[in-house]
Specification:
Layout (H helix, E strand, L loop, with lengths): L1 E7 L5 E3 L4 E10 L3 E6 L2 E2 L7 E6 L3 E6 L11 E6 L5 E9 L3 E5 L1
Antiparallel strand pairs: 1-3, 2-10, 3-7, 4-5, 4-8, 6-7, 8-9, 9-10
């Protein structure tokens, strides 16, 4: 068993309120890791109305938020690679005022 290793980190970006935020994460390990997105420490589900989680094999995931809303989306988001007891948070999304959102490392 190998712990997850980040091979593609989400890129910093600015997003206007009402726009679309898309974040890409990839990790590898043995067994191959899955990617879990969290908002304020709680799992983000693709069944939530404005969130889409696209999962691909091999530890790849995309989180899409549409539309980005002030107040509702102004929270830390985490991309976490999981494959056992060692889980690795990748990046956080943090609000900046009422205008824009930026992915922070």
């Amino acid at each position: 068993m190998n712990p997850p290793e980040i091979i593609k980190k989400p890129q910093n970006q600015g997003v206007r309120v009402g726009g679309v935020a898309s974040f890409y994460c990839a990790a590898r390990g043995d067994p191959p890791p899955s990617i879990v997105w969290r908002k304020n420490g709680k799992k983000v589900s693709g069944t939530q109305s404005r969130y889409t989680v696209l999962e691909q094999t091999g530890g790849v995931s995309i989180l899409r938020i549409e539309p980005v809303r002030a107040g509702r989306d102004d929270a830390p988001y985490e991309c976490v690679a999981e494959n056992g007891p060692l889980d690795i948070p990748l990046k956080r999304l943090k609000g900046r005022g009422n205008c824009c959102y930026e992915l922070l490392g």
